[in-house]
Amino acid sequence: MEAKQWARGRKATAVVAVTAGVALALAGCGGDGSGKKSDGASTTRASSTQNSSASDQSSSPAPEPTETLAQIKGSKDIVVVINAATRDAGGFVTVKGTVTNDGDAVFDATNWVGQEVAVAKSGASVAGAVLVDEAGKKRYYVLRDTDGVCLCTTKLLGIQPKETVPFFAQFPAPPESTTQVQFQLPTMPPASIEISDSEG
Fold first, then answer.
1. C-alpha R_g of the chain
2. CB 3.0-4.6 Å disulfide test: which of 20, 71, 108, 109 passes with 156?
3. Within this chain, do residues 24 and 79 fall inside the same structural domain, yes or no?
4. How far apart are the C-alpha atoms of 143 and 120, rounded to whole Å?
5. Does residue 41 sit in the same domain as residue 88?
6. 85-89, 104-108, 111-115, 149-153: which range is least confident on average?
7. Which among 37, 60, 83 is the end of a domain?
8. 3-state SS assignment for residue 144
9. Does residue 44 sit in the same domain as residue 128?
10. How far apart are alpha carbons 128 and 64 in whole angstroms?
């Protein structure tokens, strides 16, 4: 009996020893794998950061044109600068520029919507702007959508002193032979601008 118990004890000890050895071997492998995973994670993080940075640079908007076709100074030290008047293939002209409040009080463009009832719902905007073809004796009003809202910048409210905001307005295009027109905005002096063809 004692011999059998002794043999069983030796077998149990051997099993424990083998189990411990396997566990140590697995722990060693796990440690190496963990280290490799950590290295891979940092590489992925660095790569991800670089890709994100590159994506940010590629998605940044192109700078607006800096050419000045005309500068209009009105009352209350409001300055309108026109940077572009582009004829597009769709049969319209897009005028782009900026409004700067050089005065000391907040400016609302409520008077720039004009007297035309059809665009009154555009609110504070450049809906009252007009292109005048003096040679062809025609006036071109800002285009509007089916709801009567101008195809132009709206909500020109609360422009703070020394603040500059961009604006645009779309008009029916004059004949291609017409390249010089007057830009007129209610309460502001008129300005002569040149229409250029779209590069696209």
1. 36
2. 109
3. no
4. 13
5. no
6. 111-115
7. 60
8. strand
9. no
10. 24
* The model's pTM: 0.66
Q: How many whole angstroms separate alpha carbon 60 and alpha carbon 44? A: 24
**Residue whose structure tokens are 């190496």:** 32
| One-letter amino acid for residue 129 of the chain | A
Could you say which of 60, 92, 108 is where a domain stops?
60
DSSP letter at 112 equals: G
> How many Å is the maximal CA-CA distance in the chain?
127
HSE of 52 in the Cβ direction (CA atoms, 13 Å)?
A: 6
Report the distance separating Cα 134 and Cα 60, nearest Å.
40
Residue partners of 144: CB distance under 8 A and separation at least 6: 118, 119, 122, 127, 150, 151
Amino acid making up residue 74: G
How far is 169 from 154, CA to CA, in rounded Å?
A: 10
Q: How many C-beta atoms lie closer than 10 Å to residue 27's C-beta?
A: 9
Place of tokens 């722990």: 27
Q: Is residue 65 part of a domain?
A: no
What is the model's pLDDT at position 157?
Answer: 95
Of the candidates 189, 154, 156, 183, the one whose C-alpha atom is nearest the C-alpha of residue 75 is 189
Q: Which of 92, 83, 80, 93 minimizes the C-alpha distance to 63?
A: 83
pLDDT band at 90 (very low <50, low <70, confident <90, very high): confident
CB atoms inside a 10 Å sphere around CB 93:
24
